[in-house]
Amino acid sequence: MGALLEMAMTMTLIWLVPVVALFSFALGFLVQKLIIERSIGAARAHARRLVEEAERDAEARKKDAAIEARELLLKARTESEQEVRQRQREIQEIERRVLQKEEQLARRLEELDRRLKDLQAREQKAAELERGLRVREERLDHLAEEQRRKLEVIAGLTAEEAKRQLLGQMEEEARREAALIGMRLEEEARETAHQKAKEVLATTIQRLAPDYTIETAVSILDLPSDDMKGRIIGREGRNIRALEQATGVDIIVDDTPEAILISAYDPLRREVARQALQRLIADGRIHPARIEEVVEKVKKDVDQMLREEGEKASMEVNVHGLHPELVRLVGRMKFRTSYGQNCLQHSKEVAWLAGMMAAEIKADAKLARRMGLLHDIGKALTHEQEGSHPELSEQVLTKYNESPAVINAALCGHENIEPQTIEAVLVEAADGISAARPGARRDVLESYIKRLAKLEEIATSYKGVEMAYAIQAGRELRILVKSDVVSDLDSHQLAKEISKRIESEMQYPGHIKVTVIRETRAVEIAK
What is the pTM of this model? Predict the structure, then answer.
């Protein structure tokens, strides 16, 4: 029974499977057909929407095109109206200018008519005056003829005879005047040479009239603010002491607002100190080590500047072909003075004066300028070497192969040496002219500078002295000694010996303080 039931169920299943499959196929077909029909409907609806949107878009574009066309038409009409108005304004402006020109022309025509009438009136008056003058001239001629006839009757001479007598008298007077003129010319001829020399000097001096400035012993350095004074002084004054020791000047910090004073008789020291302070102030780092570094660099730069100054001076006086060392010595004269007169300026002026005088008398102006520029070259070495400046000039000019004429010009006026050339005579005269000008020199300053130089010379003559500077206007002598040569006890003894020698050899007002500085340094380099 169970087997039958199982068989029946199997058969039923076998029969149901195809039926179910067929039903499923039919159902799937119907579903697919519905989906396809729905897709077709959706596509048709989408197509209709696209057509409607295209129609709406076309309508909108049509409207936009119509609006844009109206706007363009309106814009073109507006621009046309503006252009018409602009043209109208231009035409009105042109009409206004034309009217102004017409008015001006009318006024000018009226002025010309008035002037023409004035000229016609003046011409008429001139014609009347001319007729009157002719009448007067005829009357005067007639009167002169009558007077001549009357004189001939009175004198019993004809006009020709009177003329001959008059010419004879004039000839006699001319001969007498000629003799007097000859005597006067002969007298003037004896004075011509002296007068010509005066004219040459006067012409030369008038052509060259430079301003003079007496060299002083103080320079003023402007500061950005008064706060910088404290930084320059440093803690317990160590910075200012380092500056004074490195440069050999006296730095005066007083109540002068935003300024300090640099005092020294040597202009070169003042220049080194001034440039060093300017660089330190600009850099902002002010301490003893930096001060020494900057001072050394400034000394090198100043040495280069001296060479440039020498080249500049040579170009100014038109002197070429100098030895490079002579050029440097010429530049050094910028920082040397003679009785307060700057040596370089003095040498340039002597060169100019001698050259112009040589040109006036047809001598060698080029040689005269060379002699004038180099005639005091020894003064650039007087503070370094022994001997007078003429001796030093002779040595240095001989060393650098200058001509005997140039050497002779440098020695003229010194030690009874006579000039050998006319150019040397002119250089000697130019030297006297330059030195004798009012305000060119000052004897008091020169004696003061010599006293300071003598102080330093006494100090440097002792063994172990490295540097010596006269500061405080000569009231203090600061001496730097070598620590490996001079001991502490020797420093005290050295100060006493120098002070006693100053007392015995020099004359000076007040007191002079002698300060001996002995400094020991230990330097190692970390690598």
Answer: 0.44
